[in-house]
Amino acid sequence: MHQTREELEQAYRSAERSVERSRWQILWLRSKGKAIKDIIEVTGFGRTTISTLIHNYNAEGPQAVVDKRQFNMSEPALNDERQQQLFQALQEPPETGGSWTSKKVQQYIKKHFDLEVTEVCGWGYLRRLGFTVQVPRPTHIQAASPEKQQVFIKK
Prior knowledge:
Layout: H1 5-14, H2 18-31, H3 36-43, H4 47-60, H5 80-90, H6 102-113, H7 119-128, H8 146-149
């Protein structure tokens, strides 16, 4: 280990980024002698993720804990003009009907801008442009019909 148990706990408690906080917590729990199965229960992370983090920390030190996504400064797939075009398209129902989904945004970008993006990117553009996911809640298979619900309505 590169740091003492107390230093790992301090890093865990003072981390500002949630990803890094979780990683420090895993390392701190392991330094306390917790088994990986116990760490899985506490953190909800999988065995592979935990083992990989511990391996990388042992090899690289504290640098392995840093959330490198914060340094991703790549340009967005769509420039401002294209984002505005997408925003205008999102004002209307999609060509395929229904509601806009990340998959439909992905397909729209492919068709109109000839760009390959992931569904996650499509979801990101929905959120960035001020839209939320519009999916109806599922109905329980044993839900009562409106007629049967009338019995429970107070008059």
